[in-house]
Prior knowledge:
The protein is flat and about 50 Å long. It has helices at 13-31, 35-56, 63-75, 79-96, 109-116, 122-137. With 138 residues, it is mostly helical. It is built from 6 helices and no strands.
Amino acid sequence: MTPPERPNRAPPKPLDAQxxxxxxxxxxxxxxxxxxxxxxxFELDLKMRLEYQATEERPIHKGGPYHMLGYCDIAQGNPxxxxxFFLKAFAxxxxxxxxxxxxxADKAPAxxxxxxxxxxxxxxxxxxxxxxxxxxxx
Length: 138
């Protein structure tokens, strides 16, 4: 059986250009410890991705904004919510990998944060990869 083809999860060029500006603004606010302003930028980034995804009926990678929303939550004293965003970022990273190459997501920043900052065991993250792989098969 041939593995399913991985969908193109990249945003289209015009949207990508807009997202890069928003992301840069978010990173700037974050570096200046203006976490609420950073959050607003990353939420806008995520909203634009979700709207495009719904309109065009194709998936768009959302790992970046999820990842940075997780950092904003940690910086604002909400680590539990931050962990939720990092889990979403990790799921996005798994979806981005080639079929049957899901272990490559272990090298992504979201996995590192989940493992090293939150102490989530690789066994649990491995289960998440197995479940996400089934989603990719559908």
